[in-house]
Amino acid sequence: MTRRPAEGVRNVVALPLLLTRAFHAKSDIPAVLREAAARLPRLTVHQADVLGPSPLLTGALERRLEEAGLRPGDHRTTGIVLASAGSSDPEAIAAIAQTAREWQRTAQWCAVRPAFASASLPRTADAVRALRAEGIQRVAVAPYVIAPGFLPDRIAAGAREARADILAPVLGPAPELARLLLRRYDQAVRAGARGNAAPLAA
Question: Rounded to whole angstroms, what are the CA distances from 135 to 79, 113, 154?
Fold first, then answer.
């Protein structure tokens, strides 16, 4: 970012690659951007909103489940574990739970249950077992994470431990995710133009 003013750039939009409004979105990123704005007074910095919730994300999740072997006709007989990284932030946990409920309603899955790799419960393996206990025969784990890493590995381990029938890959470079990033950028630019988004300042 330090090169931007020298190149004639005066406005910057920071796009958080985050699925919920947890600590990083509320504290860490704004602090870093405020520091940059203080060091570069000619630069106006805006922070775009986080990616979730969005139907584009659940569309990407369904794409990954189909790549893992689930068929569109399997919705009514399949229980889904929506496995996220986890957070201690109540707003973030509530957003994951709401995403699970809405995804079950709109896609007509047999059930969708949230699970967390850290900080919150239930864990992935426990959510898979809970769906089995409800009599659901086919259970798929959909990692609600963008990239591979330690917590996605923990999600995968939990899916294997509980013998989930399907484990989808992480969201990764899904086209839905790319469209969502562009949408959040456009929203931030329009909000800045209307004066609805105050620039970050020291």
Answer: 10, 14, 25
